[in-house]
Amino acid sequence: MPTTDAPTKRGRPGYDQQSVLRIAVDVFNRHGYDATSMGILAENLGISKSAIYHHVPSKGDLLKLALDHALGGLESILEQPEATSGAADARLEFVLRQTVAVLVDRLPFVTLLLRLRGNTDIERDALERRRTFDHKVAGLISAARDEGSLRADIDPRTVSRLLFGMINSIVEWYKPGGSLSPQRLADDVITMAFEGLHAEA
Q: What is the DSSP letter of 25?
């Protein structure tokens, strides 16, 4: 599973850039990015607004760092050997499994990504990067269909939207540390995607 930690920068005592970022992402997810002021961030951090600027130049920079952390994890999946060689259906399964793994590992960051409205240049750039990722996965679906390993009667774009609709919903209900492990969650997603709900004959 790809693991690229959010960047760390030393600043005021008690916090580094990564810890400020994690708290900021939690606040963005609870209040919404647009509704979150630097004052609200400072209150949640227990420091002054001026102290936040020792870590990042602006609220937008916090957003960019957070979205880069989410998107970097997703984009790195497509660079792995298992995603670039072999049968298309196996590559697709690998990408879906790793997408679930990144989502669980970076849950607050991916949650923020999925809740973007596209109101700023930073958000629009992130959404374009996400669309590029989705488009590449749709290409894998098309390739698997052409190889004969996936059914051909559903448009690959529809399949891609349905798959990511299922995977993206995880951020709304999955609780890390509960009875459902990340590995079992990925197994269940793959079973649903490739085998459906019908019991074996």
A: H
